[in-house]
Amino acid sequence: MYDPRSKELDRTVFLLDLICAVAAFLVAFWGRNLLLPAAGELNIYSHLFLLPLLLTLLIGFLSYFGAYKNPRYNNFLAYAWALFRSMALTIGVLLSLLFFLEIQYISRMVILFFAILAFLALLAIRLAAREYFKKSIRDGSGSLRVLIIGTGDRAREMARNLRNQAEWGIKVVGHLDPDPDRVGGEIDGAPVIGTVAEISECLKRNVVDEVIIAIPRSLLEDADPIAHACEEEGIRLRFMADIFNVQVARVSLTQIGHLPLLTMEPVAQDESKLFVKRLFDLVVTLLAMPLILPLMAVVALAVRLDSPGPAIFVQQRVGLRKHLFPMFKFRSMYLDAEEKLKEIEHLNEADGPIFKISNDPRITRVGRFIRKTSLDELPQLFNVLRGEMSLVGPRPMSIRDVDLFDRGIQRKRFSVKPGITCLWQISGRSDLTFEQWLALDLEYIEKWSFWLDIKILLKTIPAVLFSKGAM
């Protein structure tokens, strides 16, 4: 998002969403008492505790489904569809929690009224924002007036991108160049109005909202007078951040004290979508626990009866950004398995740094069964609750395997949180070579979306049930 007015509109819509959602909840509560007096009057305090959870779910889903996209990119139907999906999932999660927690004193009628009222109110907010945006575009009141420092290829590309992507409209007032001979020329219809040394005079003569430096890194020493001139005139200054020939997924700027810090991230990660992913992990895991815990107790008992030693095996694994964490699994091998690995490492049947053999003598009888059915992975749900893993993500690898990586790109998998299942799980598991496994992990990282996680989880169920590719 380039235009500052887009952020202002976003913040306004966000605040109006919160206000209208709270108002819709209170009106729904009042309406239920008014329309159904025979059913008994509800206690407002017994319902208010739902409001923080309700708002968190709703805002999270609204952000994920694009309900805060600029009106330039969303029409009425797109907003309505985003709101419908957000509201449906919010109410679905809320009703599921009430059902599993057996909370009976919350009126389902209040929740239904809230869904209808909030949907209509939030849709009205977006229609009003869209009309305001269209009016600003028509009368030109929202257009930014920009002065570009530079006349080369970088400056031309910047001007083109500004015209294509400026959401509220943009006018390039002109260009400045270090070379006086270029003054008076044109760059894609915008005049070269002076030299860099004349920036103070140019800013005084023209109405300019912001200045963009689009000159090569070798000329950045001229940035000081430009910055001082902009500061004196109270004009925003920006500069193109591609000062290094590095392709990155996202560039952002933060400030540490009074020092600006440019951040270049290799993987694009939207905080709001990651929040929804984390919320989904917690809700699904907590809802599954009443069914999973008895099964885990049975598996733990079987492991203990089959061979001496603890039921849970804990191993340090490499997680997000190579931070180590203790990963939990049901023990599927004898206690001396780690020591015996050196003796049988020459039998490795897997390519790359991972170790796999079809008839591993270290695996117990119960261990072979729980590995084939993936029951040994169930304790990793506690890693999900602790925030060390996600339900879906590249598998966490052992320190031994990571130390054997022979290419830097293999470490890109550490840019996201590891998971219990991923594309490899639904594509052959142990039948895959290490290169295929890595390619699928990198594909997941590049193409990640909430719906991809849902698709992988749904496809994991038959893959596990039919033991596809299990070893």
From TrEMBL:
<feature type="domain" description="Bacterial sugar transferase">
    <location>
        <begin position="277"/>
        <end position="465"/>
    </location>
</feature>
<feature type="transmembrane region" description="Helical">
    <location>
        <begin position="77"/>
        <end position="100"/>
    </location>
</feature>
<feature type="transmembrane region" description="Helical">
    <location>
        <begin position="12"/>
        <end position="32"/>
    </location>
</feature>
<keyword id="KW-0472">Membrane</keyword>
<dbReference type="InterPro" id="IPR017475">
    <property type="entry name" value="EPS_sugar_tfrase"/>
</dbReference>
<keyword id="KW-0812">Transmembrane</keyword>
<feature type="transmembrane region" description="Helical">
    <location>
        <begin position="279"/>
        <end position="303"/>
    </location>
</feature>
<dbReference type="Pfam" id="PF13727">
    <property type="entry name" value="CoA_binding_3"/>
</dbReference>
<dbReference type="Pfam" id="PF02397">
    <property type="entry name" value="Bac_transf"/>
</dbReference>
<protein>
    <submittedName>
        <fullName>Sugar transferase</fullName>
    </submittedName>
</protein>
<dbReference type="InterPro" id="IPR003362">
    <property type="entry name" value="Bact_transf"/>
</dbReference>
<dbReference type="GO" id="GO:0016020">
    <property type="term" value="C:membrane"/>
</dbReference>
<feature type="transmembrane region" description="Helical">
    <location>
        <begin position="106"/>
        <end position="129"/>
    </location>
</feature>
<keyword id="KW-0808">Transferase</keyword>
<feature type="transmembrane region" description="Helical">
    <location>
        <begin position="44"/>
        <end position="65"/>
    </location>
</feature>
<dbReference type="GO" id="GO:0016780">
    <property type="term" value="F:phosphotransferase activity, for other substituted phosphate groups"/>
</dbReference>
<dbReference type="InterPro" id="IPR036291">
    <property type="entry name" value="NAD(P)-bd_dom_sf"/>
</dbReference>
<comment type="similarity">
    <text>Belongs to the bacterial sugar transferase family.</text>
</comment>
<keyword id="KW-1133">Transmembrane helix</keyword>
